[in-house]
Amino acid sequence: MKLLLVEDEKRMAQALSELLKQEHYEVDTCADGFSGLETAERNLYDVIILDVMLPGMNGFEIAKSLRRKKIRTPILMLTAKSELEDTVTGLDSGADDYLTKPFMAEELFARLRALCRRNLPSDDESLSFGDISLDTHTASLSCTATAKSVRLSEKEYRILNYFIANQKQILTREQLAVKIWGFDSDAEYNNVEVYLSFTRRKLAFVGAKTTIKALRGIGYELRCEDV
Prior knowledge:
- By secondary structure, the chain is of the alpha/beta class.
- Helix content is 41%, strand content 22%.
- Helix 6 (154-165) crosses helix 8.
- The longest helix has 17 residues, at 189-205.
């Protein structure tokens, strides 16, 4: 799991980062609101841990900005404030959970696990985008316009699942490689191209107008412009 930690207190940021890495999270850190917002917009994370009191922009402003831009990454707010009004403000700004300092590491880990579970589709849920639907039980792709369906390989399924879960976002080859093959994998970037090609063929096979568009020098985006 990849996390973004936006915390301006240096000691707190270092301590939290070390604890999270010990729990096998991959952690990026930012020390101010502006860089936190930019990093959250530019990269994909499983959870954003966001302090409220930050230089530049506060956590409430960052959360509102991310939600306005349709970035749905779960947000855990950290703050020294404990008043009900601040909790309500944080949740209304787009945060998914709220943790008041000081807190125990076990509680932080439990809340992160809950947020990560919440961000996954349930076992009986199908994912959809444009004219396609992805069955999470059978790893089958179907087109709502043609009623045709096809079984996907594991990698094809994970690629489409990732794109649909992050629809309207541009995904880079690096992000796809890490998410599909793993952070420590020695998979080459041309593996990404190969499996994207396989996935496009499956989309074409079912007659979908949805496809994966390559944006030269930037990345890839799931599009369905004709539906």
